[in-house]
Hints:
60% helix; 5-stranded mixed β-sheet; alpha/beta; 13 helices
Amino acid sequence: MIPEQPNAPTGPDPRRDGLRQVGAVLRAVRREACDVSRRASPPFRNAERRFLRHLPLLAVALVAADLGIGGTLIVADGLGLPWWGAGLVAGVQGPPLVLALYRPVLAWWSSLAASLPYALLAALAEPAGRADEPWPWTAPGLWAHLGVTLLVACRVRTETYVAQWLLTMALGGALAAGLAPPSSVGDLLLWGLFSALGLAVVTVVRGRSRARRALRAQEALTEFERGRRALLEERTRIARELHDVVAHHMSVVAVQAEAAPYRVAEPPPELSESFASIRENALAALTELRYVLGMLRSPEERPEARYAPQPTLENLDGLVANVRAAGLRIDTVVTGEARAVPQRVELSAFRIAQEALSNALRHAPGCRVEVQLTYGRGDLGIRVANSPAPVGAPRQRGTGHGVLGIRERALLLGGSVRIGTREDGWFQVAASLPTSEQE
Length: 439
């Protein structure tokens, strides 16, 4: 009998996940705490007045100079050093304050290293020194390192400045255990208390700042959603009005065009064909109107259905036949080897040809039109040229929106378009649309 195998754990291991998260945090803290090249921007950097931009540097420089002078006097009096020696020992604790405005991590390591000379000299010079000397920092050195710690805490993550605080306490504890003079007054506990209080305040302020930023971002998102909702409501209203107005009249036109031949006894074939063409155009307009209204009502356009309701170059012959039936003499030419082109290019080419033929029908009724479709190596060319209108032909005035639409369609694809009158008097619309996927 084969013993049953114990079931292997299938769920996540909380202990392993916790250790992995702790390891990730420790690695992030190590990278940030050792990145001495990290830069920071001083406060009021974007202030309009130059005085405000330089105010933090001026204030911190004055504080650093005052602490350096005070520390020099205390070291010279306590350790019996000459003024230049005391200046070297105590003066190096002030510059990290200024450096913390620009290089926070480097400033913290510099401040920690600057606190060691006094501790070592005080331990070696104890027989010649006075009793009750502060150790391992002087009062100015304590405040200098405290200031650097708080300035750095404003620019690094919470885990990093907590690790820096622990490292300072550990170094101070090691010095106190191994080198503390018997007559010294330890100020490590005082520094730890003040720094912990200051870091708690920094944590609270930074937390409130993050909460305010999150609230502003949420308010901006809410305002965006409110505007988007208003836009969708307006699009729905437009779609409803278009349906109520345009679709109704186009339906009436289609019905009347279909019924008109039956209202006349034995109508001419030309009249029946004209009414049939009117009905087909009205139905085609209704079909495209439904698709447009559907896109207006839909908040998101499905990519797979983006070009499905739109015409392609296969419908160009039908467009030409439709316009030819309206009285224009049209010659079509296709040059180059026909091939598949992106759907957006096909749609734009069809719409450009449609608009150009509509302009010819509107402004030059009865004219002669040439339509040329050219398949180039990297582009698709569409050219529509019409002769001047016959004398006495009725013309319609346009708004110019068709020409603007042609230019926009070509420019959106990165193509070019030329619209104008040729030397022979013909009006021409010529567009070149790139067919490469990397246009």
